[in-house]
Amino acid sequence: MDFQASVSKLSSPVKDLVLSVTQNGTQHVGAQETDTLAVNEWIGKIAQGDLVNESGLKTLNTELVPKTYLVSNYLTAADVALYGTLHPTLSKLKPSEYFSHPSVTRYFDHIQSTAPVRTAADAFGPSFTEVTFDFTDAPRADRKVEAPKKKKEKVAEPAAPEPTPTSSVKEVASKPKKEKKEKAPPTGDETGGKKKGGAPAKAAAADDSGEPVPSMIDLRVGHIVDIMKHPDADGLYVEQIDLGEETGPRTVVSGLVNYIPIEQMRDKYLVAVATQCNLKPASMRGVKSFAMVLCATSKEGKEGGIELIQPPANSKPVIVVFVKSRPTSLDVDATPLAQLNPKKKIFETIQPGFITLDSREAAWVNPATKTVHKIRTKEGICVAPTLVGASLS
Known about the structure:
Largest sheet: 10 strands, antiparallel
CATH architecture of the largest domain: Beta Barrel
Helix content: 10-25%
GO molecular function: tRNA binding
Keywords: RNA-binding, tRNA-binding
Strand content: 15-25%
Pfam families: Arc1p_N_like, tRNA_bind
Distance between the termini: 46 Å
Organism: Mycena indigotica
Number of strands: 15
CATH superfamily of the largest domain: Nucleic acid-binding proteins
Protein name: Nucleic acid-binding protein
């Protein structure tokens, strides 16, 4: 089923809202081709109307626990359709009622706050007015901790019978112990061409074969386009950060609630470490995070303050941040790795050298040579607002 056919099954004004946000389906809210089937399936399920009754809300609440969006890590037409369908129900619920569906409430509040949905919804007047939720007295989630599994005790194998003084001794003695063969160093045929059996050998990962260098880390300029507090964690923000990708903003979870007020996070430009491309996405209290925010932590510790590392003025998302390796050039030591090998602990090795200088400029100090490499874009150096001698992570 194509997009237009699936949307046509939605009732008005939800159908009109979806077409408004997607510009009559021409943009499909940025859905990648690989995701369009899942988007259409969700819209078909939403059109059936079974998700807004009590049973449907319970099922939906369970399904939304680990999700920020229905499909992938960005807004699609499926989210717009679900928001529009849920609106008449959630707008009438009392606090005690929407507290019983915390994941649905968190999801709905996030979708209604996204710029494309809010702009289109406001144009529809009273049909999709913004719903205000009061989380002041929200009950804390009851998290059950599973008891540690007991390790199975190994049953000792019966000892081999003692050899008799006759032929058995001779038989045992005649069988010499097998010596372990030492592995020969790999030959050129084994590493770069084919093995003796004719099967192609795996190519060696040349990119991360040398000493870790900071330019292996995928640093980018990002822009916070939306932010909310994590519904299940007092110290976490859930941000939507634009990294200049066609797929739209990434969902990012950061533990900055107790250190940076939400007003100072909104609409902020920052430096991010991109996951999926470099680091693996991490799930934090049920919400998957697809990037890391680069912050400066005071040399006195977190109590001394935490600040976002700021890119140069007029920076735009997708600008690559790199380390200036020589005083008179913009050369870099390597390109970012497609995926950091966790066993090699590349990020963990490099991170202790990230600091802010007396000039508040962000830099990496080579632990061996003590040379200073400033973190920058082509527009200039990245800086911390006030912190000097701070560690970056």
